[in-house]
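Researcher: Please translate sequence to structure tokens.
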Amino acid sequence: MDQAVQVFMDYAAAFEATYVDDDWSRLEAFFSENAVYEVRGGPLACVIEGREAILKGLKKSLDGLDRRCDERIIEVTDGPHSQAVSGGQEVSIDWLVSYTRGESPRVGLVGRSVVTIANGHIAAMRDEYADDALEEVGAWMQQYGADLDGSYV
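Model: Translation complete:
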């Protein structure tokens, strides 16, 4: 496994541990101080600049959505793939996260994460959602999660 993929996989494991225990300090070392996080597609689209702001935004999203659902399951559907890019190594992974809440049916959110690793740290991270794939999630949110808020900012 190349170094960039290892950094990404270590970050992903640390993120899941943070999801469980809310210890955000373990994630600080993965990001460069001036890292940029971008969410593309759908109503949560945003750009967040800086390590501290990224961690704050990730926590806000988890607290407002993921942690308020009864079940959250993440499946990797493709990747990770790695390629050299200007300024570092890019790692991409496709995934499906599904949620249930109360008596709701399971809803799935399909996405892709693309991370640029430079000097052993995450310099840029992007989550991408296809707008047409978000229709089912939007309907589910209206019916079962009107009080949920997965926004980052």
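Researcher: Any highlights?
Model: The chain has four helices and six strands.
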